[in-house]
C-alpha cells in the first residue's frame, strides 16, 4: 500500500531537519507490515518512501490521503508507535462497519 500522508504538526531539532519530515509536507508512505491486533483492529507499520525519519510527540496524528476507486479521500489516524522510534510509524485502525477507508485498509 502506498499513501500520501502529512503530520498535523511536527517538532524537531534544526540540526536534524534535512533528514526529517518537514512540518505540513506530504510524503509517500509505504506499508511495510500489517499486525493483526484483534479480529477488527490492525496495526499498519509505515515508512517514508524517501527514507525520511519521523519526528512526533505523543498524541499526534497522521492525515492519510488515498485514492480509492478514483475518489480522493482523507482520514486521520493517531500515531500508535512511540516517538523514540523514528524510522517507522504505526497507525492502528479499527474496521468500521460500512466505512470506506478502514475496510479498504483492512482488506
Ligand atoms: C484526530 C483523529 C484521530 C483518529 N485516530 C484513529 C485511530 O487511531 N484509529 C481509528 O481506527 N480511527 C481513528 N480515527 C477515525 C478515522 O479517521 C476514520 O473516521 C475511521 O477510520 C472511519 O473511516 P472510514 O472511512 O472507514 O468510515 P466512513 O466511510 O467515514 O464511514 C463512517 C461511518 O459512517 C457511515 N456512513 C458513511 N457514509 C454514510 C452515508 N452516506 N449515510 C449513512 N451512513 C454513512 C459508515 O457506515 C460508517 O459507519 C481518528 C479520527 C480523528 C479525527
TrEMBL record:
EC id: 1.14.12.17
Ranges of residues in domain FAD-binding FR-type: 24-107
Any GO molecular function: nitric oxide dioxygenase NAD(P)H activity
Cofactors (names): FAD
Signal peptide: none
Keyword set, alphabetical order: 2Fe-2S, FAD, Flavoprotein, Iron, Iron-sulfur, Metal-binding, Oxidoreductase
Gene3D superfamilies xref list: Translation factors (2.40.30.10)
Pfam families: FAD_binding_6 (PF00970)
Enzyme class, broadest EC rank: oxidoreductase
Domain of life according to the entry: Bacteria
Name the record gives this protein: Flavohemoprotein (Hemoglobin-like protein) (Flavohemoglobin) (Nitric oxide dioxygenase)
The organism's taxonomic lineage, starting at the top: Bacteria, Pseudomonadati, Pseudomonadota, Alphaproteobacteria, Hyphomicrobiales
Amino acid at each position: 500500500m502506498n499513501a500520501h500522508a502529512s503530520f498535523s504538526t511536527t517538532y524537531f531539532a534544526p540540526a536534524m531537519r534535512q533528514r526529517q519530515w518537514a512540518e505540513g509536507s506530504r510524503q509517500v508512505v509505504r506499508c511495510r507490515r500489517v499486525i493483526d491486533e484483534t479480529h477488527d483492529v490492525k496495526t499498519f507499520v509505515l515508512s517514508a518512501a524517501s527514507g525520511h525519519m519521523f519526528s512526533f510527540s505523543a498524541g499526534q496524528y497522521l492525515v492519510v490521503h488515498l485514492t480509492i476507486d478514483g475518489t480522493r479521500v482523507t482520514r486521520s489516524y493517531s500515531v500508535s508507535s512511540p516517538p523514540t522510534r523514528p524510522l517507522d510509524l504505526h497507525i492502528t485502525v479499527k474496521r468500521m462497519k460500512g466505512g470506506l477507508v478502514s475496510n479498504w485498509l483492512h482488506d
